[in-house]
Amino acid sequence: MGNARCAWCGEALPVSAGAGRRYCNAGHRQAAWRARRRWRQAETARRTLVTAGSVLSTQVERELAGVAAGDGKALEGAAHCTAVARIPRLTDHLVRLAVLADRQAGVSWPQIGTALGMSGEAARARFTRRATFDGRPGPGDVPPR
Question: Could you give the 3-state DSSP secondary structure of residue 5?
Fold first, then answer.
């Protein structure tokens, strides 16, 4: 048992620890339980994120395939720009869903800000601006098929 380590902090467990002991103290056991609970609670947000990512990918492929399918005829004015004009709105929605999933999983604003290349305060201000955002697409978030 001398080489057993705490599943939370990685410190070596005392030699006197029981056979099934995984944590060096009750605080680490509780912290691990809270982290597992937060991860399970964020399941719906993660699924929504995956769905939104699939929608984004499908829309980009569909728009670009429409431009590529031109049969040599003159394209409508700004057809290429039209094809990619919806992408920023869809990616913004995808980022918002990712932030929602991370927040539900217990990730702090400074960690989210670092991942997005901004401060934690800027991330909090930007992504809590819309109080009505609940993770579901709105009427203008997904272009018509």
Answer: strand
